[in-house]
Write a structure and sequence with these properties.
This protein has 556 residues and is an alpha/beta fold. The longest helix is centred in the first third of the chain and has 22 residues. 39% of the residues lie in helices and 18% in strands. The chain is globular. The protein contains 21 helices and 18 strands. The strands form 4 sheets. Strands 1, 2, 9, 10, 11, 12 and 18 form a 7-stranded mixed β-sheet that branches. Strands 7-6-14-15-16-13-17 form a 7-stranded mixed β-sheet. A two-stranded antiparallel ribbon has the order 3-4.
């Protein structure tokens, strides 16, 4: 795994720059960066990827502690990755040189649970079976479910068409969005709750169908319908998990980059402090560890809109006193951060069979009225007395999904949404030295999540816990440089997907030769990040894009 932990130093960076010219430098090693870098390297470009964390991969990285390994941001992927016609599978094969393999998750891949009534709906590859179960459980006219599913199908097509704007030059992107304007407004400018009601769904049935709103971090009455539609059929062929864990994604892609271009490199512990510009306002490189790294063709940022436009372009040394909101408002970008999460990582002794665990996920909600639950959350100034009453809990046994996992231990992750302001009083403290009150709050979260969720649904795990790790929004902010601990970058609400915001978040930023990739560029999710890199290729290098298309179609 040393390929993921190649640490940078001032001497290494200077030597790398002296060895040969750098064509593109990437800020951040998320999947968007890795995808684009791999494709560009295939046509001879020398790329340099700089990651501020101590391991490469962005949200797809894994971490180890006391013999256990957990994935942080990847829990499963859909899109029929076991089928030859899967575009996502072909792109993964392309950027990893066919080395990335996938395990098929257990059926059902998701179970939506109402924790109050203990109602459970299984979501598997056969969506028709799920439709009938929802209709029966909630006394819902099944035709309303079909209407909602059909609307999702058409909205998904509109979403994919609108994403094509990211691959076009900005003037053409503006023209394209104008051309598809009516369809865009129908898909992106209506919230999911409204569409569900218009289709005739009850609150309970709609809540069950939108159980995985946590995947994009916005409650249904604030989420653009097209965003939910992208997920509605995403898992129709089942769910998949990378063999060897989430780290296999970055590991195989970085290996492919090195194989294709031996002079390209990925460095960790390499925080970029500024984007360099010339007198004509063009991006000419970055500053990292007091080394100015100049590039021949461009700078690609996968650090998110806030970090890119406010902190790296408007560095404190430039005496810019504008707030984050002011900076992004000048560009037409909504500045609201996404939801923050509390993570509980559990290491267990025993195999998944011994512990009664399976390779699927539980989405546990406090009833299926998600909009009301999130309304209550956002008006809470202080953490609730009972943490089990938070809107939803995602419970997943990562190691149970990996058919390459052979050791007699199991790892589990539990995630719940929280407000960053609950942890603000410790924002100025140092990691692992935040004080007894902070530790007590984390311990309370841990005990509640274990008793209310893990032990309740998997009682055999109770006496087999060997280690736990807890992470708050402050942890996310420290390791992933995510402002306010935002797990999904900019909030994926209706404002975020207005046409003006989409143009402002175009691949080509307002700074010449500065490009954007990642979840703020396109949308949240593993496939979203993957496609962000592909669309950026079309915008940056037509030659690389044509070669990638031919290789993906003819070789893989």
């Amino acid at each position: 795994d040393q390929i993921l932990k190649n640490g940078a130093s001032k001497k290494k960076l200077q030597s790398f720059c002296d060895d040969a010219a750098v064509d593109y430098v990437f800020i951040g090693s998320g999947l968007g960066s890795l995808t684009l870098a791999s494709i560009l390297s295939k046509v001879g470009y020398r790329v340099l990827i700089l990651e501020q964390h101590d391991v490469a991969g962005g949200a797809t990285h894994s971490f180890e502690e006391r013999g256990f390994e957990w994935d942080v941001g990847l829990h499963y992927v859909g899109d029929n990755l076991n089928k030859f016609y899967s575009i996502s599978r072909r792109i993964f094969d392309l950027v990893s040189d066919g080395a990335l393999e996938w395990s098929l998750c257990d059926e059902p891949y998701d179970i939506a649970i109402d924790a109050i009534s203990d109602t459970r709906i299984h979501f598997g590859a056969n969506h028709e079976k799920t439709n009938k179960a929802i209709a029966k459980t909630f006394h819902q006219d099944i035709q309303a479910i079909y209407r909602f599913r059909r609307a999702c199908f058409w909205a998904r097509l509109v979403a994919l068409a609108s994403f094509f704007a990211k691959a076009l030059p900005k003037p053409l992107a503006r023209l394209w969005l104008f051309f598809i304007g009516p369809a865009y407004r129908w898909a992106w400018c209506r919230d999911t709750t409204t569409v569900a009601k218009n289709c005739g769904l009850s609150t309970q049935a709609a809540g069950c169908l939108t159980y995985l709103y946590g995947d994009y971090g916005v409650q249904p009455n604030q989420a653009p319908f097209a965003l939910h539609a992208l997920l509605d059929s995403h898992y129709a062929g089942g769910a998949f998990y990378p063999r060897g864990g989430a780290k296999s994604i970055a590991k195989t892609i970085i290996t492919a980059i090195h194989r294709t271009n031996t002079k390209s490199q990925v460095f960790v512990r390499a925080p970029v402090t500024a984007i360099l510009r010339d007198n004509h306002n063009k991006a000419i490189g970055v500053s990292c560890k007091e080394v100015d790294i100049k590039v021949r063709h461009g700078v690609v940022s996968n650090a998110g809109a806030i970090n890119t436009f406010h902190y790296l372009l408007h560095h404190p040394s430039l005496n810019n006193n504008a707030s984050v909101k002011d900076t992004l408002a000048q560009l037409g970008i909504p500045s609201a951060p996404s939801v923050a999460l509390f993570y509980l990582f559990v290491g267990l002794e025993g195999t998944k069979q011994q512990l009664g665990l399976a390779g699927n996920n539980l989405w546990i909600s406090q009833g299926f009225n998600h909009d009301q639950n999130w309304h209550d959350l956002y008006f809470a100034e202080q953490p609730p007395e009972d943490f089990s009453k938070l809107p939803t809990c995602f419970l997943s046994a990562g190691s149970a999904k990996d058919d390459a996992h052979s050791v007699p231990t199991t790892t589990v992750q539990l995630l719940v949404p929280v407000l960053n302001k609950w942890f603000n009083q410790w924002a100025s403290t140092k990691l692992k030295h935040r004080g007894s009150d902070y530790d007590s709050l984390k311990a309370k979260f841990r005990d509640t999540l274990l008793e209310s969720f893990l032990f309740r649904f998997f009682p055999k795990t109770k006496n087999n816990i060997k280690h736990t790790v807890l992470a708050t929004p402050l942890t996310t902010e420290f390791y992933l440089n995510a402002q306010d601990g935002a797990s999904y970058g900019l909030n994926h609400d209706l404002n975020r997907f207005s046409k003006s915001a989409q143009l402002a978040l175009h691949t080509q930023t307002h700074i010449p030769r500065l490009y954007l990739v990642g979840q703020d560029h396109l949308c949240v999710g593993i496939v979203g990040a993957l496609m962000s890199g592909v669309l950026a290729t079309l915008c940056i290098s037509k030659i690389a894009a044509i070669r990638a298309f031919l290789e993906a179609m003819l070789v893989y």
